Structure to design on (121 residues):
């Protein structure tokens, strides 16, 4: 009998005709800002909507990370708000990496809507 609570395995990472598989490239886009930018520039990746979505979402998360970092200039209240914000961004970043590797298009609140809009262009 199969375990009803078993977690489904990740889709196989079959390489596309040219380059990485979409789920692998989508997950790699989140590692740092550099792969996300490369995936938006390189022609073999920037035509694939799944990769474009995750690359744009990574850029949005990075911008949010930088913006929240400025809160640390403000004593006490800024440290609290900035710290909580950075923890939330880090959690979203990790979930986004896992969902991208599983082949899912998971949208981070607010940022995901903009990433989806830019990915469709």
């Amino acid at each position: 009998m199969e375990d009803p609570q078993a977690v489904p395995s990740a889709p196989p990472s079959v390489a596309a005709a040219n380059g990485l598989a979409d789920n692998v490239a989508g997950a790699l886009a989140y590692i740092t800002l550099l792969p996300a930018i490369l995936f938006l520039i390189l022609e073999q990746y920037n035509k694939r909507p799944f990769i474009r979505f995750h690359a744009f979402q990574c850029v949005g998360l990075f911008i949010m990370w930088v913006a929240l970092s400025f809160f640390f200039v403000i004593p006490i209240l800024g440290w609290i708000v900035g710290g909580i914000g950075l923890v939330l961004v880090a959690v979203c970043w990790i979930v986004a990496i896992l969902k991208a590797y599983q082949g899912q298009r998971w949208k981070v609140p607010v940022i995901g809507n903009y990433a989806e809009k830019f990915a469709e262009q």
In short: The chain has one domain: 22-120. The chain has six helices and no strands. The first helix runs from residue 22 to 28.
